[in-house]
Amino acid sequence: MKEIVLLYNVKKKSEMIKVARIAGVAVRIVENNELSQSAAYLAGVMGASAVPREYSGELKRECVLLCGLTAKKFNAVIDGMRRHRVLVDLRGVMTQQNMTWSFEKLIDELSKEKRFMTAWSKLNKIVKKMKNAPNWATELLNKEEAEAKELEEAVKKLENIKE
Questions:
Q1: Which residues lie closer than 8 Å to 29 by C-beta, 6 or more apart?
Q2: Measuring CA to CA, how many Å separate 8 from each of 5, 17, 108, 118?
Q3: Does residue 127 register a pLDDT over 90?
Q4: What SS3 class is residue 112?
């Protein structure tokens, strides 16, 4: 598989391109009208074909998708992003599972993941700081099927508790 970084709506595009090139990775800019195309097609995966319809909207989120990178190049891109202060809203890796998704769906799923991880992280931080965290909060952190919304509600609830 070709090593490539897909960029969508990245504010620091020139810096991100520089980071990828230093790491020895090709770059492809994903345009708004290509959001209906699969990640595999956009990344140039052999056998992936185009979808006949163009996307007519625009998403506001920034996204960087790392496709087919070796561990060494993956680390070089991530380290380069840190060094050059290229903070991108959504970052992901193309996998066997998501490569057939449209880029729009991929951005939507990355957004959901980020929302969940942000809420979980906030709740975890609050629980660790508390002397006597409620059992329900600890159980929620360990719940396999927890939803971002319930984690966010728990954060609000605990922030209102005065210790």
A1: 7, 8, 13
A2: 10, 12, 13, 22
A3: yes
A4: helix
The two three-digit tokens of residue 71, written as one number: 């561990």
**Domain co-membership, 53 together with 120:** no
Domain that holds residue 77: 4-111
Query: Does residue 162 surpass a pLDDT of 60?
Result: no
What integer pLDDT is reported at residue 160 of this predicted model? Answer: 85
Same domain, 64 and 37: yes
Give dist(CA 51, CA 40) in Å, integer. 11
Entry pTM: 0.88
Average pLDDT over residues 47-70: 90
pLDDT, one tens digit per residue, over 23-38 is: 999 999 999 999 999 9
Helix (H, G, I), strand (E, B) or coil at 101: coil
Same-domain status, 66 and 140? no
Alpha carbons 105 and 108: distance in angstroms, whole number: 5
From the list 130, 122, 128, 131, the residue with the least C-alpha distance to 154 is: 122
Number of domains into which the chain is organized = 2
